[in-house]
Amino acid sequence: MPLSSGTRLGAYEIVSPLGAGGMGEVYKARDTRLERDVAIKVLPDLFTSDAVRTARFEREARLLASLNHPHIAQIYGVEDTPSAGAGQAALRAIVMELVEGQTLDARLKQSRSSRGLPIAEALSIARQVADALDAAHERGIVHRDLKPANIAVTTNGTVKVLDFGLAKSEPEHAAEPGHATTVMAPTVEGVVLGTAPYMSPEQARGQATDKRTDIWAFGCLLYEMLTGRNAFAGATPTDTLAAIVEREPDWNALPAATPASVQRLLRRCLEKDPKRRLHDIADARLDIDEPIDAIAAAATVRRATPKGIRPLWIATACALIAAAIAAGLWISSNRAPAMAPPARLSVFTPGQITPQLSATISPDGTQLAFVSTDASGQSMLWLRPLSALDARVLPGTENAAHPFWSPDGRYLGFQAAGKIKTVDASGGPVQVLADSPIRSGASWSRDGKILFIPKLGELATVPAGGGTPSPVPVQGFWPHFLPDGQHFLYYVGAPADRRGIWVGALDSADTKRLLATEVKGAYAPPGYLLFVRAETLMAQPFDADRLELTGEPAAIADGIWMAAPAGQAAFSASRTGVVSYVNASLFNTQITWLDRTGRRTAPIGQPERWSLTPQLSADGAHIAIARGLFGARHIWVVDTSSGATSRVTFGAVSDDSPVWSHDGTRIAYESGRADGGTRLYLKPVRGEGSETLLMDAASPVTLQDWSSDGQFLVYTARGDSGTSDLWLLPASGNRRPSPLIESRFNQTQAQISPDGHWIAYTSNESGTDEVYVQSFPTPGSKRQASTNGGVQPRWRGDGRELFYLATDQRLMGVPVRLGATFDADAPVPLFRTRLIPQGSQSIGLPTAYAVTADGQRFVVTGPPDDPGPAITVVLNWLAAVKR
User: Fold this and answer.
1) Residue 58 maps to which CATH number?
2) Is residue 722 located within the same domain as residue 602?
């Protein structure tokens, strides 16, 4: 029932109606206590008559009220008015910030141009909307009904996004005549909710939605602001939904002056497959900021130009443009046909390709080498000629990583089992060249040298035919030879003020930083530096003789997989204009339950950018896991029953490696420092408690486990010999760390037994990674638990079984008896996994699976059932640069 002027809702007095929609009626009101004007939204009856909806609404309202962002209309509180008697319903209302201005819907209707808003205005609004969405998505809030009517623009141009999260899962009523229709229909998965022209394909199908639905709506919004028309429209809502699912927008309707970065952004936002859609709205700001800055700079030049000079300047510019056009016409009539545009093809791999691995195109651009699993689940190196439909496996390349070509394309190098190896691309025996425990790539020069990493950060060369390695006086990762075979590119990750792509020489300690980036770079003929910026592959002119960048970068491909913490980016280039890259969508992983036979029994939640190291609480009810990308990973908790997620850490740096307290109330985790160090924190899982600093280390450390009595945390740190040692940190008291297991070998992946008297860990002291068990917390009695290689141990909750991952990717179970001594039977194979058996060569890597207390189920993260094509190949990428 509409409220009249003067009606009181608690301390709020209704002044006048502002509007109505599917989520209720909105009024201007006066807060009589604080003497300010507010907006009151009276919610539909279903919010007072349905206890489940009421409880959910209150939870969401509290979360939304915690959002304090300049571009999100603030929620001040919730006001309840009980029923005044028979026939009168109780009222529930939201008290919100009153935004003085007009909606974007009204602004678009006011625009006299049928071609939409001026580009500068449209981009300014889009930038502010992206900021609002980013802030909400960081808190796990999804709008689900982003449209012009839900965006207010104040008189000074400030944007406020309205109704954030309020339409999360509730049906809306029919819209007012003349407005876009809100669609609601029951489906198998729930409810189709949204406003038809702005609904994503997954919304239109009634499927589960996430933040990528908002990214789609953002693309529709930006398209409408630029063109003055809906990206998808039909005579009826049904026709509109059909257009969303089946057709592309009219890209020709975009103004000719639309910046290239904005056109690219629109196409990424409006990808129908959410796996290929822009993953994070924060990345949209990069494509918007560039043209905004250019427009602002042009305005500054115009303001600074004296009026008397401007006509001469314009006339001169016109004369130059006319001359250029005339010259262009003459040249076009006397030159070869224009360069063909870039072409793209998708490559589906025979099995699973994991994000840690890569693909590389041959120097002549005719063959693609990549790592994928075979029918048994074994990770192998594969070769696919682009002229063929099938790939073939190269025998002897088990557990290969980061393949690289010889300059003549006859041989492939790769890393496996802590070694640099080579193999003839046509088949043949594998040759082992040198130790290389750090998986950070290698490069092959024209004069037969292979540049690789023998120790953390160090570089060396070894002859491709075999021989003694020679040190190189440069420290870094991901080396890449330049054409002269003496100079090379490499990557430095820390400290922050040195991070980026550098150039060095084999015989000199002189180095030079070329570009500040988050990941590695590569050289591509005829003279470009390739690098990645926010999943976009860029090419910038580079003089390989003078070792200088000489021009502006251009985008040549989108959706490149990258891992900023490791400096890795999965792309390569031939000398013939062919580029290959691993698709970023592969980084999305699905958390899944497995039974003791390895059968996938149920997914947990939706595919996301989860890390590969889930940590299960002792009661099996929750998973602690890192999520994120580009150096911005944070700790989340996932409910194993519902898949619901909640974020635990909110810092500006990357957080990782969570471990649970035994009672499941707290999580300890590591957090990066800008100088490459690590801080260890302790934080309650629920509530608003702040984190407690446990330790501040100047060097990298990795948290491993927390004893069941709560007394000790175990972490790995690099020792004086450059290997990984195990350290003990008291969880309370003086918190003074002490060494637990030190040696000239690597010790990592430590797990404390449930009774707190033993610790299992991975070590390479025998020359091969094996799992050992030693007394705890005082080292003493020790026994090898694995046979023929093993990594990543985990205890069953009752301590009667120890699990580990064998080198053939099989999960093994070892029956054990704990007491004054450690007794174990022979390991029993359970099932083959998709996990990569990385151990001591991956310093500090936590265990990549978790097990329930009864040992009957396992939690892993891995590729979704349908991750899409693994690799994209771009032919004639130079045409994209020249355009």
Assistant:
1) 3.30.200.20
2) yes
Residue where the block lists tokens 């003020």:
497
Give the distance, in angstroms, between the CA of residue 845 and the centroid of all CA atoms in the same chain.
19
Residue with token string 């002897």:
396
- The per-residue pLDDT for 339 is 56
Q: Which secondary-structure segment (H or E) carries 882?
A: helix 878-882
CA angle 672, 616, 663 (to 5 degrees): 95
Q: Tell me whether residue 322 is in a domain.
A: no
Output the CA angle 805-810-814, nearest 5 degrees: 60
Q: Would you call 145 a catalytic residue per the annotation?
A: yes
Residues 115 and 176 in one domain: yes
For residue range 58-106, list pLDDT tens digits in order.
665 666 676 778 888 888 888 877 654 445 557 778 888 888 888 898 8
- C-alpha angle 74-80-85 in degrees, rounded to nearest 5: 155
Q: Is residue 882 part of a domain?
A: no
Query: Quick check: 772 and 783 in contact, CB under 8 A?
Result: yes
Question: Residue 586: what pLDDT?
Answer: 65
Name, in order, each residue with C-beta under 8 angstroms of 252's C-beta and a sequence gap of 6 or more: none
The pLDDT, as a whole number, for residue 5 is: 87
Report how far residue 879's alpha carbon sits from residue 883's, in angstroms, rounded to the nearest whole number. Answer: 6
pLDDT of 850 reads: 95
Angle at 549 between CA 511 and CA 336, to 5 degrees: 140
Q: What is the pLDDT of residue 356?
A: 56
Question: Residue 236: CA atoms inside 13 Å, Cβ hemisphere, count?
Answer: 2
In sequence order, which residues have a C-beta less than 8 Å from that of residue 646 and are 6 or more positions away?
A: 140, 636, 637
Q: SS3 sequence, 426-469?
A: CCCCCEEEEECCCCCCCEECCCCEEEECCCCCEEEEEECCCCCC
- Cα–Cα distance list, 307 to 281, 303, 312, 544, 577 (Å): 41, 9, 10, 45, 48
Alpha-carbon span 431 to 412, nearest angstrom: 11
User: Comparing C-alpha atoms, which of 724, 796, 737 is closest to residue 763?
Assistant: 724
Q: What is the DSSP string of 587-646?
A: G-EEEEEEETT--EEEEEEEEESB-S--EE-TTSSEEEEEE-STT--EEEEEETTT--EE
Q: Which is the catalytic residue, given 145, 163, 214, 656?
A: 145
Dmax of the chain from CA atoms? Answer: 95
Short-list 157, 271, 264, 729, CA closest to 538: 264
The phi, psi pair for 384, rounded to 5°, reads -130, 105
Termini Cα distance of the chain: 60
C-alpha distances out from residue 734 to 36, 285, 698, 713, 730, Å: 51, 45, 19, 13, 7
CATH code, domain with 842: 2.120.10.30
pLDDT in tens, 423-448: 999 888 999 999 998 888 999 999 99
Q: In 10 A of CB 882, how many CB atoms? A: 8
pLDDT of residue 755: 93
Q: Which residues of the chain have pLDDT under 70?
A: 1, 21-23, 45-64, 66, 82-89, 111-114, 164-194, 293-340, 354-357, 565, 586-587, 629-632, 687-689, 720-721, 839-845, 865-868, 882-883
Tell me, what DSSP letter sits at residue 814? E
Tell me: do 573 and 661 sit in the same domain: no
Q: What is the pLDDT of residue 308?
A: 41
Q: Model-level pTM greater than 0.90?
A: no
Which of 119, 170, 142 has its CA nearest to residue 298? Answer: 119
Domain that holds residue 606: 588-862
Q: Which two tokens stand for residue 188?
A: 């198998």
Instruction: Give residue 542's pLDDT.
Output: 96
526 preceded by cis ω (within 30°)?
Answer: yes
- The answer to whether 276 and 270 have CB atoms below 8 angstroms apart is no
CA angle 584, 590, 594 (to 5 degrees): 145
Of the candidates 43, 189, 69, the residue with the CA atom closest to the CA atom of residue 138: 69
Contact of 829 with 815, CB cutoff 8 Å = no
